[in-house]
């Protein structure tokens, strides 16, 4: 999935945007992002996108967290103004970058210090102190590139890498039994491998990838015929598309299409082409 994911459904009173990482990190980092709550209370719904996020809180008490991949939508209510800066890691990248199994990141926001040690607090302070825009993103580029040079990170498992590439190339429209056979693993073993590297099994991940493909199409074409879209993306029918989208986003395809059609300026899905948050 090279196109940007639809990772959040913001409400009014906040701004959400994504920015590209340095070219040297694009096999590991999907993008950087910012979330600024300007007029609380503000609600943001975070959607399953298969990504692992590093999140830095700004202000007087900076902190850093890591969140595992979501299996369903998560709703957050911000009662006070807040500024967040994040790094979205591509599926399968966390073990190499952080030296941790993704299954260990379940359960909400984990302090990054528990994963990479005291350097996390120092990094959070430096991110908060750095000027917004290119200097802050350059700081993250440098830190992440240095992490990739460490020798304690786990190299990708070839079976996971192959299955992951197939799922992404086919936009989630895969048969899991055939996928396991092509990956030289039993379905049960491939499920365990995905749990370690991705955060959940290949079936759930494929559903997320396929729903993300549908979301991107609705982003590009809010008036798309939903029955035709279901056939194109390999859903059994319109009802199957609606069921999966409601489960993974909390809204129906038609509701999402109307929201996109309204072109609400508070809903910032499109990834910026420049590096200045």
Characterise the protein shown here.
This protein is α+β, with helices and mostly antiparallel strands and 277 residues long. It has two domains: 8-148, Sandwich (Jelly Rolls); 158-262, Orthogonal Bundle (Arc Repressor Mutant, subunit A), CATH 1.10.10. Helices cover 41% and strands 18% of the residues. It contains eleven helices and nine strands. The strands form two sheets. A six-stranded antiparallel beta sheet has the order 2-3-8-5-6-9. Strands 1-4-7 form a three-stranded antiparallel beta sheet, with no helix packed on it. β5 (52-57) and β6 form a beta hairpin. α3 packs antiparallel against α4 and α8 (202-220) crosses α10 (238-249). The longest helix has 19 residues, at 202-220. The chain is globular and about 50 Å long. It starts with 7 loop residues before the first strand and ends in a 15-residue tail after the last helix.
């Amino acid at each position: 999935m090279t196109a940007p994911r639809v990772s959040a459904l913001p409400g009014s009173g906040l701004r959400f945007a994504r920015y590209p990482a340095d070219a040297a990190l694009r096999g590991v980092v999907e993008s950087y992002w910012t979330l600024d709550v300007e007029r609380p209370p503000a609600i943001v719904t975070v959607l399953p996108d298969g990504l692992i996020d590093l999140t830095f809180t700004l202000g007087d008490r900076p902190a850093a967290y890591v969140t595992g991949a979501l299996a369903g939508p998560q709703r957050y209510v911000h009662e006070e103004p807040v500024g967040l800066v994040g790094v979205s890691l591509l599926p399968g990248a966390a073990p190499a970058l952080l030296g941790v199994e993704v299954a260990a990141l379940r359960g909400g926001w984990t302090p990054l210090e528990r994963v990479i040690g005291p350097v996390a607090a120092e990094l959070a302070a430096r991110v908060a102190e750095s000027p917004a825009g290119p200097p802050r993103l350059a700081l993250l580029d440098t830190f992440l590139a240095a992490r990739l040079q460490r020798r304690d990170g786990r190299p990708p498992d070839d079976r996971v890498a192959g299955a992951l590439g197939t799922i992404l190339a086919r936009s989630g429209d895969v048969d899991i039994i055939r996928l396991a056979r092509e990956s030289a693993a039993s379905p049960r073993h491939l499920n365990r491998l995905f749990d370690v590297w991705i955060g959940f099994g290949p079936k759930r991940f494929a559903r997320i990838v396929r729903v993300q493909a549908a979301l991107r199409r609705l982003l590009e074409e809010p008036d798309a015929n939903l029955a035709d879209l279901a056939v194109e993306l390999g859903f059994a029918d319109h009802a199957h598309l609606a069921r999966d989208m409601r489960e993974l986003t909390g809204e129906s395809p038609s509701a999402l299409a109307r929201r996109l059609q309204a072109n609400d300026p508070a809903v910032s899905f499109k990834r910026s082409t420049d590096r200045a948050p």
